[in-house]
Automatic annotation (TrEMBL), chain A:
FAD-binding PCMH-type domain boundaries: 53-240
UniProt protein name: FAD-binding protein
Coiled coil: none
The entry's keywords: FAD, Flavoprotein, Oxidoreductase
One Pfam family it belongs to: FAD_binding_4
Matches recorded under InterPro entries: Cytok_DH_C_sf, FAD-bd_oxidored_4_C, FAD-bd_PCMH, FAD-bd_PCMH-like_sf, FAD-bd_PCMH_sub1, FAD-bd_PCMH_sub2, FAD-linked_Oxase-like_C, Oxid_FAD_bind_N
Cofactor(s) listed in the protein's UniProt record: FAD
Superkingdom as given in the UniProt entry: Bacteria
SUPFAM superfamilies linked: FAD-binding/transporter-associated domain-like (SSF56176), FAD-linked oxidases, C-terminal domain (SSF55103)
Gene3D superfamilies xrefs: 3.30.465.10, FAD-linked oxidases, C-terminal domain (3.40.462.10), Uridine Diphospho-n-acetylenolpyruvylglucosamine Reductase, domain 2 (3.30.43.10), Vanillyl-alcohol Oxidase, Chain A, domain 4 (1.10.45.10)
From TrEMBL, chain B:
Protein's name according to its UniProt entry: Cytochrome c
Position of the signal peptide: 1-24
Top-level taxon of the source organism: Bacteria
Domain Cytochrome c: start-end pairs: 25-95
Species of the source: Aromatoleum buckelii
Annotated keywords: Heme, Iron, Metal-binding, Signal
Keyword Signal found: yes
PROSITE patterns in the record: CYTC
Length: 515, 100
């Protein structure tokens, strides 16, 4: 490719870029450096509603170890070339493997996929960024280790380090993934290697069991940020319970969300239900059943409430579908099951047990996720609208019924205005809920793509006015989402960036942080 | 681009497995790629069935690398060129699925 038309990092000359790439080739090997358009194509496949060109990389480099990463950082500093680290690169609907800003070099850590240690007694693991959940699952199975992890929905091809670093969530009792991480190894912009918590101490054997260490606990600043490159992460694993009882409770009316949340919150806080409960709307369940949208909708615009009711009736789907599980012994689960039955009866819900769910695709993938068995069942969502467009709108909500109904109505109204369907679910933390909405659109249709961008923008700002912030956001909206959190926080973030990465070479712009 | 690695250390339980184990982070062959990646959608009623359609190898390789609408792209760091060629050949030459 000639230097006239190729993508270059902002402010970097073609000559300096070539020199940097030559030095990086000497570090990782020429076959692990990509600079031409065709081989770079997989790094530019995005689903978010902006032009591919906005997130086009200038190169991709694939180191095989922390020493190579350190050396690459030295080169990046010398030539001021920005690098965008990815792990498994499957942050789909949040920007995938593409850099946050055009021209950044993707630092692809997928080849670093060693499962360094699993301690079966302490139930911990230490893994590299390229390890996928499927790989970890297979490892545990092959070694007959009765340990479970929590994973997000696209788990078979995604991995624990990247998901934790973006503060993703899953569906087991360990569903808040950052909370269940323990110890990181981080390559800083100057090539220094930091081990957080107890890992800072040479010869420590408590890195994966005690998070805090001594002095400030630093792990949090390496999540949703660009202060370092996480090259190892400790994580806690859950002993497989002797008895696991997943279930679904279906509710018939959209307004039932208030009583569902108010009835389940005490059970969640008291850990009668220990896992991250999901409350999924009809239109999340339908594509995963699967139901075809074209059987119920003709023409443009959002689906009608009548059509949603017809889907519920035709396919036995609730307006809301609650997924949760009991994790314990037969005796404790028998006791807690009576509580679940009583709550369902009192709130007008219909329980579907694992036995009764046989043959249901939508229920099976949920039940698998609640025990950390990787799958890709949720990709059924992408068949709903077709055309490969998706951006996650993900505000945080209090776990209070009135709040959830308010958020759902606000979102549905704005989505409808732009012709999009409310495809949403609430994932219950302990006292919070992640209200996750898949804004699905046809990315091959320019009008829908523009509308999707405008719709997200209106959702973001309308929710922010009501005091609702995002738990996570795509690269396309990093700056705008960061702005909703106010100037003081951003100023502190900038000062940290100045201190740790004065040349602004690690993913400038990620989460709105740049110099 | 196929990495050879035997990095797993288990303390307190289990015996070390060879690199052929899926947990070792190295593809054994194209069939394993199909089972661990492709089949999650293409034999799960999520993506279209691929087997038995005599899809050209070059087409499969292109869609894997570029993605296609909802189909994610896969990088050579995830599925190396040799493994991709094997899985594409396997799909192209496969018999139709018996369950559809």
């Amino acid at each position: 490719m000639s230097s006239n038309n190729r993508v270059l990092p902002k402010g970097v000359t073609a000559g300096d870029f070539d020199k940097a790439m030559q030095e990086i080739r000497a570090i990782v090997g020429a076959e692990y450096v990509l600079v031409d358009e065709e081989p770079l194509a997989p790094y530019n496949k995005i689903m978010v509603p902006v032009a591919d060109a906005q997130h086009a990389p200038s190169a991709a480099v694939m180191p095989d170890g922390v020493e190579q990463v350190r050396k690459i950082m030295k080169v990046a500093n010398t030539y001021r070339v920005p690098v965008y680290p990815i792990s498994t690169g499957k942050n789909i609907g949040y920007g995938s493997a593409a850099p946050v800003e055009r021209g950044q070099i993707v630092l692809d850590l997928r080849r670093m996929n060693r499962i360094i240690e699993v301690d079966a007694e302490l139930c911990t693991a230490l893994v590299e960024p390229g390890v996928t959940y499927q790989q970890l699952y297979d490892y545990l199975q092959e070694h007959n280790l009765p340990l479970w992890f929590s994973c997000p929905a696209p788990s078979a091809i995604a991995g624990p380090v990247g998901n934790m670093v973006d503060r993703g969530v899953g569906y087991t009792p360990y569903g808040e993934h950052f909370m269940f991480s323990c110890g990181m190894e981080v390559v800083l912009a100057d090539g220094e290697v930091l081990r957080t918590g107890m890992g800072a101490m040479e010869n420590s054997n408590t890195w994966q069991v005690f998070k805090w260490g001594y002095g400030p606990t630093l792990d949090g600043i390496f999540t949703q940020s660009n202060y370092g490159i996480v090259t190892k992460m400790g994580m806690w694993l859950m002993p497989a319970p002797p008895d696991f009882r997943p279930f679904c409770i279906q509710y018939p009316n959209e307004t039932d969300i208030t009583k569902i949340v108010d009835a389940l919150r005490p059970l969640r806080i008291a850990m009668v239900i220990p896992n991250a409960v999901v409350i999924a709307h009809t239109l999340w369940e339908a594509p995963c059943t699967p139901v075809k949208r074209s059987d119920y909708v003709t023409g443009q615009g959002a689906i009608s409430d009548d059509a949603v009711l017809k889907i519920q009736a035709d396919h036995g789907i609730g307006a809301w579908n609650v997924y949760a599980g009991l994790y314990g012994t037969k005796e404790t689960n028998d006791a807690n099951w009576k509580i679940i039955e009583a709550v369902a009866a009192a709130t007008g819900g219909k329980i579907i047990t694992e036995e009764a769910s046989r043959g249901s695709q939508a229920l099976q993938y949920r039940f698998d996720l609640m025990k950390g068995k990787p799958n890709l069942g949720e990709f059924g969502l992408y068949n709903w609208r077709g055309g490969g467009g998706s951006i996650w709108f993900a505000p945080v909500s209090q776990a209070k019924g009135s709040e959830t109904l308010k958020q759902m109505k606000m979102a549905k109204e704005i989505l409808g205005k732009y012709g999009f369907d409310y495809v949403g679910e609430f994932i219950v933390g302990w006292r919070d809920m992640h209200h996750v909405i898949d804004l699905l659109y046809d990315r091959s249709d320019d009008t829908q793509t523009k509308n999707a961008y405008a719709c997200y923008d209106e959702l973001l700002h309308t929710f922010a006015k009501e005091g609702y912030g995002m738990y996570r956001a795509s690269t396309a909206f990093a700056e705008k989402v960061a702005a909703t959190y106010g100037p003081v926080k951003r100023d502190v973030e900038k000062r940290l960036k100045q201190a740790l990465d004065p040349n602004n070479i690690i993913a400038p712009g990620r989460c709105g942080i740049s110099l | 681009m196929r990495a050879n690695r035997l990095a797993c250390l288990v303390i307190g339980a289990g015996a070390m497995l060879g690199a052929a184990g899926a947990g070792a982070g190295q593809w054994r062959d194209g069939a394993q790629v199909y089972e661990k990646v492709c089949a999650h959608c293409h034999e799960a009623n999520v993506g279209p069935v691929l087997k038995g359609r005599q899809l050209p190898q070059v087409y499969i390789e292109r869609v894997v690398r570029h993605g296609n609408r909802a189909m994610p792209s896969f990088r050579p760091s995830e599925i190396d060129d040799a493994a991709l060629a094997e899985v594409a050949q396997l799909i192209g030459a496969s018999a139709p699925l018996t369950k559809e």
